[in-house]
């Protein structure tokens, strides 16, 4: 008899809200605790350059000490930011959360955002996603630029690090170069989890090449299965193990307008997920306080009754939740030196 494959579940905390108002920190913490009580794999937080306020990384850094297990995945725009600073911020979130961080890679194709920053005109979207892939690549090199045991912390001799275990990355991309090493020790997960929204065709190859988690949208289980197969085939073509790529279907949920409510949603998830069309689901609630609460309190228990979702967290890190291996540092393998 074929065993049921458990699903991965995630949710968005701030759908379409842009940057967060500092006064909403308490609200965000409450929502995060709700998702954690339901044992969701991770929570995303949308972001853009379009509005004032705190960025998603800052918001989830505030949420991290108020939670214990749920993964935290802010949207991080790579177009108008320095790759070195981006990777350091994501690594810091992994440390603050004790191994629960990820980042949802995003680009900024709009001319308004380009003019706001004043760094350069907005290139074509395809070029932005190619650049985003290079940012992911150099981020992983920088996270690996400290070996796991590079820190000595020997008070008697005054030595903090073993310099032999720090490595220059010497990365040259199409639009930037980075020498390294990082200024942050290797994160608890080795590499924080990389999430790419692959709903747009321009982002699909970047997702196949670099993502640990790819988000898709589909109108049928057959369409979802085809997209999952395409992404896994792309991962294989890039020399990756497709078994280390999780494909989640993003669902916009408004329980005030969907016929059947939480029970009907559980049926849909069980049908698509149980049939292997996707590895899990990413809930995008129309009204987080209402829809996330009903999802956590009414839909998730129905999925547990079917054996499709866990009752609690078995591991400590986001990679544990997703069943992803902790990568070995690439400079340990090649024996590079400073």
Helix-strand blueprint:
Layout: E1 8-12, H1 25-37, E2 42-45, H2 56-63, E3 71-77, H3 83-96, E4 102-106, H4 111-117, H5 125-143, E5 151-154, E6 159-161, E7 171-172, E8 177-178, E9 193-197, H6 201-210, E10 213-216, H7 221-237, E11 246-253, H8 261-274, E12 280-285, H9 288-305, H10 318-322, H11 330-334
Parallel strand pairs: 1-2, 1-12, 2-3, 3-4, 4-9, 9-10, 10-11, 11-12
Antiparallel strand pairs: 5-6, 7-8
Helix pairs in contact: 1-9, 3-5, 5-6, 6-7, 8-9
Task: Describe, in plain words, how this protein is organized in 3D.
This protein is α/β, with parallel strands linked by helices and 338 residues long. It has eleven helices and twelve strands. The protein has helices at 25-37, 56-63, 83-96, 111-117, 125-143, 201-210, 221-237, 261-274, 288-305, 318-322, 330-334, and strands at 8-12, 42-45, 71-77, 102-106, 151-154, 159-161, 171-172, 177-178, 193-197, 213-216, 246-253, 280-285. It has an eight-stranded parallel β-barrel, surrounded by seven helices. A two-stranded antiparallel ribbon has the order 5-6. Strands 7-8 form a two-stranded antiparallel ribbon. β2, α2 and β3 (71-77) form a beta-alpha-beta unit. α3 (83-96) packs across α5 (125-143) and α8 crosses α9 (288-305). The longest helix has 19 residues, at 125-143. It is globular. The mean pLDDT is 92.
């Amino acid at each position: 008899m074929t065993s049921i494959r458990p699903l991965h579940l995630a949710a968005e905390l701030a759908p379409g809200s842009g940057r967060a108002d500092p006064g909403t920190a308490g609200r965000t913490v409450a929502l995060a605790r709700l998702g954690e009580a339901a044992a969701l794999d991770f929570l995303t937080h949308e972001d853009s350059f379009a509005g004032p306020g705190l960025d998603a990384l800052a918001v989830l850094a505030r949420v991290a000490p108020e939670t214990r297990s749920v993964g935290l995945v802010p949207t991080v725009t790579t177009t108008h930011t320095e790759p070195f600073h981006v990777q350091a911020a994501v690594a810091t979130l992994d440390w603050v959360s004790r191994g629960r961080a990820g980042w949802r890679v995003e680009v900024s194709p709009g001319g308004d955002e380009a003019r706001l920053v004043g760094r350069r005109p907005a290139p074509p979207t395809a070029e932005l996603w190619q650049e985003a892939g290079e940012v992911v690549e150099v981020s992983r090199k920088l996270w690996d630029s400290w070996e796991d045991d590079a820190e000595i912390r020997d008070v008697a001799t005054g030595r903090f690090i073993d310099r032999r275990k720090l490595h220059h990355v010497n990365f040259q991309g199409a639009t930037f170069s980075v020498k390294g090493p990082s200024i942050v020790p290797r994160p608890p997960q080795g590499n924080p989890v990389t999430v790419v929204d692959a709903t747009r065709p321009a982002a699909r190859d970047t997702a196949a090449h670099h993502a640990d988690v790819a988000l898709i949208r589909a109108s049928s289980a057959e369409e979802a299965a085809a997209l999952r197969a395409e992404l896994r085939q792309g991962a294989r073509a890039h020399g990756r193990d497709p078994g280390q790529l999780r494909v989640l279907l993003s669902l916009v949920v408004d329980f005030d307008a969907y016929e059947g409510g939480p029970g009907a949603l559980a049926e849909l998830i069980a049908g698509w997920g149980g049939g292997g069309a996707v590895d899990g689901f990413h809930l995008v609630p129309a009204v987080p306080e209402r829809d996330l609460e009903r999802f956590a309190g009414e839909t998730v228990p129905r999925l547990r009754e079917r054996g499709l979702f866990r009752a609690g967290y078995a591991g400590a890190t986001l990679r544990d939740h997703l069943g992803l291996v902790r990568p070995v540092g690439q400079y340990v393998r090649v024996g590079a030196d400073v």
